[in-house]
Amino acid sequence: MTPTTARIKAVDTYDIRFPTSRELDGSDAMNPDPDYSAAYLILRTDAPEGPGRIEGHGFTFTIGRGNDVQVAAIEALRPHVIGRSVDELCADPGSLGRALVGDSQLRWLGPEKGVMHMAIGAVVNAVWDLAAKRAEKPLWKLLADADPEWLVAQIDFRYIADVLSPADALHLLRAGKQGAAEREAKLRETGYPGYTTSPGWLGYSDEKLTRLAQEAVADGFTQIKLKVGADLADDVRRMRTARAAVGPDIRIAIDANQRWNVGEAIEWTRALGDFDPYWIEEPTSPDDVLGHAAVREAVGPDIKVATGEHVQNRIIFKQLLQAGALDVLQIDAARVGGVGENLAILLLAAKFGVPVCPHAGGVGLCELVQHLSMFDYVALTGTTEDRVIEYVDHLHQHFTDPVVMRRGHYTAPTAPGFSATMHAESIAEFTYPDGRFWAADLAAQITEGAGA
C-alpha cells in the first residue's frame, strides 16, 4: 500500500429503516413489531476522484424508533474523525477507538455502554472496513494474516487485564498461527457452519413455522432457533410443532429475549425440556451476571445457557465467564466498541474455552460477524466444534457483498472490506423519513386518512 496524504474529509450519516414489522419478521416476546434499521455512516476521504478513492462504511443496528437518536450519537463523534490521516487510521484503528472512548464529556453518557458505545463501534468498524479495502483483503483475512503483536495493540485491556493480559492474548494469537494456512484452505472450501432463526419468529403461524423449518433442514442447517416467552402454552405447542417438523437429530435453540425473572426463566425453560432444547438464550437481563449463573446451574447441563447479543462491553463478558454464567457466548458485531473490542471478547472466550456463536440477522449483522468467526477459526481457536453463526434470510440484497450460504454454511467472503457497504439505491430508497419508500408511504397514509 503506497502512503498517501489523504485525510478523512466527511462523516456522512443516514437513518435507514426497513418496514419489517408489517410481515412480523423479527418479532419476539419483547419486540413484537420491529422495523429493522441501521444507523449508517460513510467515511469519505479527500483522495482524488477515481478508482483509488476508497470509503469506509459502518453501521449499528436498531429496530426502528430511536434510530435517529443513534445517528445523532454517531454525529457527535465527527470532530474526532474529520482531518485524521487515512494512512495513520488504517495502520492503527485502535488509536481511534481509544480516542472515541476517551472523550471525557461524551464518556459520561456511558461509559462504554449504550447508544454512545454503539456509535463508537459503528465508527471504528467503518475504519476497519476502510483498512481492509485499502489492504485489498476481506476483513477476516486481514485479521488472520496480521502480526499477533499488532493485533494485541488494537485491543483495550483496561478493566480486563486481571483475567486477560496482553501477554495472555499474545500467547493465544501466536498459538493460533499454527495450522492457520490449512484451516484457511478448509474455510474457503467448506465455509463456516450456520444456524437459522428464520422459522422461529413469534408472529409466524404453525404452518409457516413448519414450512420454514423443513426448508432449513433441506438447505443443510443442523440447528434452528425459536423465539419463546410470551405464552407458555403457545411455546409448548410451537416447540412440539418444530420438533415434529425437523425430527430428533436437529438442534432447536430457544430465545427468550430477556423476558423473564430468574425464577420464571428456570421454570419456563424446564417446562420446554421435553422437546430437547439445545440452549436457552437471553433468559433474563443481559446485565444480570449472577442471574444467568443461577439459571445455568438450574437447567444445565442438559440445556445450555447462551447470551451476549445485548451485553454492552468486554467487562460484562469477563464477569459472565468468571462466574460460569454461560455455556455459549454470543458476540454482536455492532453492539460493542467495534472490531477491537470484539477481538478482546473472542480472546476472553478462548482463554475460558467457551464456544462463540454470534448473534446475527437484523440489518447487515450476518455480513459483519462472519468475518469475526472466520478469523477466530483460522487464527485463534482453530475449531468450529459446537460453533455456529446465526443466519436470518432478511435484507441481504441491500448490500454489495451479501452473505452467501451453501449447505447451511457461510461461504468465506472474498471482496475487500468488512462487507458493510450498502447499495446507494437502497440508501436512497429507505432513508427515513425522506427516502422514496418512506415518502410514498407517508403520502399514502395522508391520502387514506383524507378519504376516511
Structural topology:
Blueprint: E1 8-17, E2 37-45, E3 56-62, H1 67-76, H2 78-81, H3 86-91, H4 93-101, H5 104-107, H6 114-134, H7 139-145, H8 148-153, H9 166-176, H10 180-190, E4 192-196, H11 206-218, E5 223-227, H12 232-246, E6 251-255, H13 262-271, E7 277-281, H14 289-299, E8 304-307, H15 314-322, E9 328-329, H16 339-352, H17 365-379, E10 389-391, E11 405-406, E12 409-410, H18 424-430, H19 436-451
Parallel strand pairs: 4-10, 5-6, 6-7, 7-8, 8-9
Antiparallel strand pairs: 1-2, 2-3, 4-12, 11-12
Can you put this structure into words, describing what you see?
The mean pLDDT is 95. The relative contact order is 0.14. The chain is built from 19 helices and 12 strands. The longest helix is centred in the N-terminal third of the chain and has 21 residues, at 114-134. Strand 7, helix 14 and strand 8 form a beta-alpha-beta unit. The strands form 3 sheets. The protein has a 5-stranded parallel β-sheet with strand order 5-6-7-8-9. A 4-stranded mixed β-sheet has the order 10-4-12-11, covered by helices on one side. It has a 3-stranded antiparallel β-sheet with strand order 1-2-3. The protein is of the alpha/beta class and 452 residues long. The radius of gyration is 21 Å and the shape is globular. It has 2 domains: 8-136, Enolase-like, domain 1 (2-Layer Sandwich), CATH 3.30.390; 180-425, TIM Barrel. This is L-fuconate dehydratase. It catalyses: L-fuconate = 2-dehydro-3-deoxy-L-fuconate + H2O.
Q: Brief description of this entry?
A:
This protein is of the alpha/beta class and 452 residues long.
